[in-house]
From TrEMBL:
Residues 361-371 have a biased composition (Basic and acidic residues). Residues 69-173 form the Serine aminopeptidase S33 domain. Residues 344-371 are annotated as: Disordered. Gene3D superfamilies: alpha/beta hydrolase (3.40.50.1820). The lineage of its organism: Eukaryota, Viridiplantae, Streptophyta, Embryophyta, Tracheophyta. This is Serine aminopeptidase S33 domain-containing protein. Signal peptide: none annotated. It comes from the Eukaryota. PANTHER family: ALPHA/BETA HYDROLASE DOMAIN-CONTAINING PROTEIN, PROTEIN ABHD17C-LIKE.
């Protein structure tokens, strides 16, 4: 069944154009370069081998001030030669790096286009970003246009730490472009409707519409993919970002509207701040952990040992044994001596009386001083021309 599904996808979904570019080796730099496109010097060309044995071409547009990288999957009727100027514009206006690539069978990439091949293609490009360009997963934003939303969401479900996903004129699934169906069928392709709930990063949906009745969006000027696809994908997203519904235009010209780049820039800034916040939280947590460790260490150092406690206890006991009688008690014993001699003359008895008085004064003058030790304690599908029927929103 998988083979039949792949065949249907190839016949109905993919329309690779005649290659719009050539690839040649620059004799001076010994690097590949695009021929037949303007400003080709801004692109770094690579040939990548996929796990399905195909060789595909990619182009990397670098921005020196960028912290984020867009991995762009184009529509079904374009190649990277046609998209190259748009990649440069994205890089300049959004201040990001952009990595674009051609699916198997597109541009100068060999093989035949199919759903499974596109999944292998985007995995090879992602691997290139990590290993060759040393881009971290959390600094990548996946961008899928139209049918490119298929490989984009497939990869997004496998990368929980990516920074964000952008879906432009995206599809719910291949068959849903032509037919109004409630459930995914075995022969369907790019079942984005089933994958979007498993994407764990902010999702920006961009689509075009014709009118708005104040309750929901109605109608569309996208004659390829109805806006119901974009609405449903946004509703099913776990981390929804404010969508962009562009009034007017068509399936492939959203970028000519001024609000297009404005909204994209807001999204990029938002996820960049989220990245900075996450890094700050990690730093604060590490500092807290360090402080806690130091506190515990200091507490252990300041806490008296068992030997010290026992030694202190012995000294206290010995002091009590050595000094059994306080000075004031000695004065109390003097009158007893006089009492033993009470048979002496009256004068002695008078003296005894005075001695009693002296004893009372001694008891009132006694003081006691106690001393205690101190204790210290201390987290696109661009122009799916073969899909000629566009139906209304799903039920």
């Amino acid at each position: 069944m998988g083979g039949v599904s792949s065949t249907i996808a190839s016949k109905l979904a993919f329309f690779p154009p005649e290659p719009s570019y050539q690839v040649d080796l620059d004799e001076q730099t010994q690097k590949l370069k695009l021929l037949g496109v303007s400003q080709s010097e801004k692109g770094e060309v690579s040939i990548l081998q996929t796990k399905r044995g195909h060789y595909i071409f990619s182009v990397f547009v670098r921005n020196k001030g960028a912290t984020m990288t867009l991995l762009y999957s184009h529509g079904n009727a374009a190649d990277i030669g046609q998209m190259f100027q748009f990649f440069i514009e994205l890089s300049d206006r959004l201040r990001v790096n952009v990595m674009g690539y051609d699916y198997a069978g597109y541009g100068r990439s060999n093989g035949e286009p199919s759903e499974q091949n596109t999944y292998a293609d985007i995995e090879a490009v992602y691997k290139c970003l990590k290993e060759i360009y040393e881009v971290k997963e959390e600094d990548i934003i996946l961008y899928g246009q139209s049918i490119g939303s298929g490989p984009t969401l497939e990869l997004a479900t496998k990368l929980p730490q990516i920074r964000g996903v952008i879906l432009q004129s995206a599809i719910l699934s291949g068959l849903r472009v032509m037919y109004r169906i409630k459930y995914s069928l075995w022969l369907d392709i790019y079942k984005n409707i089933d994958k979007i709930p498993y994407v764990s990063c902010p999702v920006l949906v961009i689509h075009i519409y014709d009118s708005c009745d104040g309750v929901g969006l109605q109608g569309t000027e996208d004659d390829i993919v109805d806006i119901s696809h974009g609405k449903k994908l946004w509703e099913l997203s776990k981390m929804k970002y404010e969508p962009l519904w562009v009034k007017g235009g068509n399936h492939c010209d959203l970028q000519v509207f001024p609000q297009f780049f404005t909204h994209l820039k807001k999204f990029i800034i938002s996820v960049e701040r989220q990245s900075d916040y996450s890094k700050n939280v990690e730093l604060e947590e590490s500092i807290i952990d360090l402080d806690y460790t130091l506190d515990i260490t200091n507490e252990i150092k300041c806490r008296p040992s068992i030997e010290e406690i026992e030694k202190s206890s012995r000294i206290s006991t010995e002091q009590k044994e050595i000094i059994p009688i306080r000075p004031s008690t000695d004065r109390k014993l003097k009158p007893r001596i006089s009492f033993d001699k009470r048979e002496k003359p009256r004068k002695s008895m008078d003296y005894f009386g005075k001695s009693r008085s002296s004893t009372d004064q001694s008891e009132r003058g006694r003081t006691s001083i106690d001393r205690f030790g101190d204790m210290m304690r201390s987290v696109a599908m661009c122009n799916i021309d073969c899909l000629k029927q566009t139906l209304a929103e799903e039920d």
